[in-house]
Amino acid sequence: MSGAAGVLNKGTIFNDLVGILKNMTSDWDTGYEGEITAETRVIGDLGFESIDVVQLVVAIEEHYQRRDLPFERLLMEDGHYVDEVKVGKVVDFLAENLNRSPEAKG
Fold first, then answer.
1. Which has more pLDDT, 100 or 45?
2. Which burial class, exposed, middle or buried, applies to 94 when counting CB atoms under 10 A from its CB (0-12, 13-18, 19+)?
3. Which end of the chain, N or C, is less packed with Cβ atoms under 10 Å?
4. Within a domain: residue 83?
5. Do the domain assignments include residue 87?
6. Alpha-carbon radius of gyration of the chain
7. Residues 6+ apart with CB under 8 A from 76
8. In a domain, 2, yes or no
9. Over the stretch 53-103, which tens digit does the pLDDT of each residue have?
């Protein structure tokens, strides 16, 4: 795991997430030709279905060896699942929650 001894920065998290996404979609015919950026939509651009989002959560948990991340904050709004999530929002969520500890200083 990158940065296990310290704070994970957004650049590291972004690179980790892009690697996970590329691994998951490598044999999919998504029609998406561009590079994955912060503005890339997980559902609209990468072609994820709801089960793929669940698999993404599991892949992230396995990558960071964490099972305590509150993904409902990312994937739900007002008691309903969100229709779309951008890569940058996932990175922000992970940066906030992976580095969470009492009085964490970076």
1. 45
2. buried
3. C
4. yes
5. yes
6. 14
7. 82
8. no
9. 999 999 999 999 999 999 999 999 999 999 999 999 999 999 999 987 633
Residue type, 56: L
SS3 at position 81: strand
Residue 56, exposed/middle/buried by CB under 10 A (0-12, 13-18, 19+)?
buried
Number of compact structural domains in the chain: 1
| pLDDT surpassing 70 at residue 6 | no
The whole-model pTM stands at 0.84
Is there a domain that residue 5 lies in?
no
Look up residue 81 and give its two tokens.
């699942």
Cα–Cα distances in Å, from 39 out to 15, 61, 62?
A: 14, 22, 24
Which tokens in the block code for residue 45? 């651009």
Domain residue limits at 41? 10-98
Q: Give the domain CATH number at 31.
A: 1.10.1200.10
Average pLDDT (7-30) is: 92
Question: Phi then psi for 67, rounded to 5 degrees?
Answer: -120, 10
